[in-house]
Amino acid sequence: MPAGIDPRLLEILVCPLTKEPLRYDAGAQELISDAARLAYPIRDGIPIMLVDEARNLDEPTAKAKR
Amino acid sequence: MEEPFDRRAVRRHRDRAAATLGGHDFLLRAAVERLAERVAESGRRFPSVLVLGAAGGLLRDAVQPHADAVVEADLSFGMLRGPGVVASEELLPFAPGAFDLIVSALVLHWVNDLPGALVQARRSLRPDGMFLASMLGGETLRELRAALLSGESESRGGASPRVSPFVDVRDAGALLQRTGFARPVADVETIDVTYADPLRLMAELRGMGETNALRDRPRAFTPRSTLMAAAAAYRAHSGDAGGRIRATFQLVTLTGWAAAPRTPPEAPTEERPPAARLPRRLRPA
Q1: Per-residue pLDDT tens for A28-61?
Q2: Proportion of chain B in helix, strand, coil states, percent, rounded to 5
Q3: Are A21 and B95 in contact (CB < 8 Å)?
């Protein structure tokens, strides 16, 4: 499976909480919801769109929330 | 609001089942077959399809001939087979009007807020987009429910919730309408299966990822005395002449349409009676 995210997916994905568009951070492999202050990880090209697995942008040093 | 299901347990069960699904997919195959029939009956070609509940790729394979692009979504990473996302049916991460068809196999009966999930699915559809979902209905595992109840009250003098409250087919049809789908249809089919013994049934449920994920489920290990009493009760009430036990599964197939612009979703709910389809007797190897 290619590491990059499918560009078609990027077009249709929104934040599951706010339904707002996401910013794609290709370096960090994250989809960022500025409104929800959450970053959703992309693993092996698969976006993990779960609030439980998202990184809180206001706790930049903390590990992903469990 | 008290949520009936522990979604983390649902996810764990699906993660675990992703590796074993192939040996325990008779129900999934039946569900996918019904969904594929309805996709074909629509006579349409769908540019963009969401498969909600990836079903180890079975549903993708079934809809691919009628679609240009298929995206899978599942609570479990391991269930995905093609392009897709890990997502919760309760919080869909898709833009309005992203899809022309949403098909879902055997995941919506584990959702806490079914009306909320249906509304989100509808919003993810283009106007006149099609929604198709197969979920387990109220008669599912009625023998097991009764046997556990009886086994537990005999051995411990009490009962705890062990089998999900599945949706009633009438409620499901009404719910589609209430959540804004046009021309809703709820279809029901009963599938009777036999097993050598109750433990084989439990192993099958585990293999499918369908074991108890109720929030109020007993967390302690179930005492052997309770299991033995339940197994005896199962055999006594639902054993057949050949020494096997019966298990009922009920598949509810929902069809609805996202309303076209300015078409109010007021078509009456059409419900085919349960007798419309003959029960099938399946006997897994």
Answers
A1: 999 999 999 999 999 999 999 999 999 999 986 5
A2: 40, 30, 30
A3: yes
Pick B7-282's CATH classification: 3.40.50.150, 3.30.565.60, 3.40.50.300, 3.10.180.10.
3.40.50.150
Beta-carbon separation of B85 and A49 below 8 A: yes
Nearest CA in chain A to B80: A46
Q: Where are the beta strands (DSSP E) in chain B?
A: 46-52, 67-74, 84-87, 99-105, 125-136, 181-195, 245-258, 270-271, 280-282
Domain boundaries, chain B: 7-282
Domain topology for A7-56: N-terminal domain of TfIIb (2.20.25)
First to last CA, chain A: 26
Q: Is B50 a residue whose pLDDT tops 90? A: yes
Q: Across all residues in chain B, what is the average pLDDT?
A: 85
Q: What is the tens place of the pLDDT at every residue in B93-132?
A: 999 999 999 999 999 988 888 999 999 999 999 999 999 9
pLDDT of A65 reads 46
Q: Which of A12, A42, A52 to mutate to test the interface with B (most CBs of B within 10 A)?
A: A12
Q: Enumerate the residues of chain A whose CB falls inside 8 A of the CB of residue B84.
A: 46
